[in-house]
Amino acid sequence: MNEPRGPVDSSRIPRFAGPATFARLPRLDEVARADVAVVGVPFDAGVSYRPGARFGPTAVREASRLLRPYNPALDVSPFATQQVADAGDIAVNPFSIDEAIETIEDAASSLQADGTRLVTIGGDHTIALPLLRSVAKKHGPVAVLHFDAHLDTWDTYFGAEYTHGTPFRRAVEEGILDTEALSHVGTRGPLYGKQDLTDDEKLGFGIVTSADVYRRGADEVADQLRQRIGDRPLYISIDIDCLDPAHAPGTGTPEAGGLTSRELLEILRGLAGCRLVGADVVEVAPAYDHAEITSVAASHVAYDLISLLALKEDS
């Protein structure tokens, strides 16, 4: 078996030079196959406030140039134990949400047909629904960890059923989530009413607020989540606005009082050994970013997700 092809050697080609694939990894068409594919979905027609997440994949790739091959926090070299490649972007219709959802589902299913697992960079959170549909085709109903300032289980916006605030309600309705193992992490801020929480609980979600993380700590929260997940196939969906605006200003619907980037990364690292089958990082909107704060955070989150996939591959 051939050794995985890793990132460009930064001792020979400076990190700021050359094409900006994720972590300077090879393109998918440059390797025979990939165990993990990083794919972008530059789509933000489902947003309800500030647009711009269509530029997220490009910004996160640029910010990932400084990532290195060894992850000391998890004691793994994620690009050496599995072939990771950049699959480019899924090109979707920016004027039709319905068509875009169908295109994303078809493209994700095609990429995963040979066993490749996806780490997807958005784009707005609408894209989670077709990605979950694709994963469920292979694994059946999946456990979901949803890191977000918001619930994203509302019914409609302006009568529209498919937006960045509705994907997890639709997914539950479609029977593609394991309702015994659903959790929001990092939620906070005002709601439309207490009924939002009642409806969310009826869908099967448990909630760990950002205040819970602050009071209880990342290790305890990760342990609780791990117990809830068990050995179920797990999908992790991360809206970068789960982070406080101090750590992620470049997003469409910022809320005060969020997680630190350190807390998010430590919770993810506490999930080592879970049966991760796919993940996304969404809602990076670089037009509102400063000094790449948000896209750097997102690139490190994606890196740790890839590292978790490497650990499971080794186990």
Distance between the termini: 19 Å
Percentage of residues in DSSP E strands: 15-25%
User: DSSP helix count?
Assistant: 9
User: Which range best describes the helical content: under 10%, 10-25%, 25-40%, 40-55%, 55-70% or over 70%?
Assistant: 25-40%
Mean pLDDT: 96
Please give the radius of gyration in angstroms. Answer: 18 Å
Class inferred from helices and paired strands: alpha/beta
Q: How many strand segments?
A: 8
The string of secondary-structure elements, in order, is EHEHEHEHEHEHHEHEH
Largest sheet: 8 strands, parallel
What do these coordinates show?
- Strand 5 (177-187), helix 5 (195-203) and strand 6 (205-209) form a beta-alpha-beta unit.
- Helix 1 (56-63) crosses helix 9 and helix 8 (261-269) packs parallel to helix 9 (293-314).
- This protein is an alpha/beta fold.
- The protein has an eight-stranded parallel beta sheet with strand order 2-1-3-8-7-4-5-6, with helices on both faces.
- Helix content is 32%, strand content 17%.
Write the layout of secondary structure elements.
Elements: E1 36-41, H1 56-63, E2 84-89, H2 97-111, E3 117-122, H3 128-139, E4 142-147, H4 167-173, E5 177-187, H5 195-203, E6 205-209, H6 210-216, H7 218-229, E7 234-239, H8 261-269, E8 276-282, H9 293-314
Parallel strand pairs: 1-2, 1-3, 3-8, 4-5, 4-7, 5-6, 7-8
Helix pairs in contact: 1-9, 2-3, 3-4, 6-7, 7-8, 8-9
Summarize the structure.
The protein has about 325 residues and is an alpha/beta fold.
Fill in the keyword field for this structure.
single chain; 315 residues; alpha/beta; eight-stranded parallel sheet; 8 strands; 32% helix; globular
